[in-house]
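TICKET #2291
ISSUE: user wants both folds in one file
ATTACHMENT 1:
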Amino acid sequence: MSLRISFELNDDDLKHFRLIMNEARKASERLAPEDIVASAEALLVDAAESSAPGFIVERLNKLQLMISMLSDIEWRLPHQEARRVLNALAYFSEPEDLIPDNIPGLGFLDDAIMIELVVRELKHEIEAYRDFCDYRDRLKQQHGDNTVASRSGWLDDRRKSLQSRMRRRRKTRPRLL
């Protein structure tokens, strides 16, 4: 039997989380990017060892995706976007959580909420990365596992696809001029 529980964060709640995130970002300015990523990876390990509930694991998978965006050599996230992702991961480098992680069942709840908030903030970056991963998977299926995908190749492929769609749509619409 499963039970669905939902809650709504009002403006004051969101303001509180933004404040916490801003403090974490300021504190993380003195950390190297690899330390911020290592802290987020440590959270994933801790959660896996604690048998976190499914709704937490679901959010942690999104955290793993953000980490992958930074470390994926073929993706090569530009500096400005990488900085945005690192800023989103800053909360996870703070040793003190809102809810201590060792509380069974709820310890990672604050982390899950923060992940959900940063995923919304990074929606476009995440969508683009997923699109790139799908492109890479298709390439490997078509040409073998040794095929190397690149961000520029993906962009070229995406551009060609969009231009092809534009031409198809243009053919089906009546001309106005």
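ATTACHMENT 2:
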Amino acid sequence: HGWTDLKFVSWDEGVLNVSGRGGRFAGIRTADASGGNAAGGLIGAWTCPDSNTQLSLTATSPDSTALQIRFDRLTSGFSCATK
């Protein structure tokens, strides 16, 4: 089995709040043709309006609980503040 056997499935999407700003997120799941070797990922994107900087974050893990916790910690700890 190689990476060409993987199937990608979108499983969620919605609004993301980063540093008090709105953004978007999407969740993906991968598995091989037999449903094994499953893993997931979260992708988020947002813009810091003061600097007009656009950012994105992609996190992946075979453990969905750890994935959600880590993604939330990264986005909740991010700040758009400028000096």
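RESOLUTION: both attachments delivered.
EXTRA DETAIL ON ATTACHMENT 2: The first strand starts at residue 7 and ends at 18.
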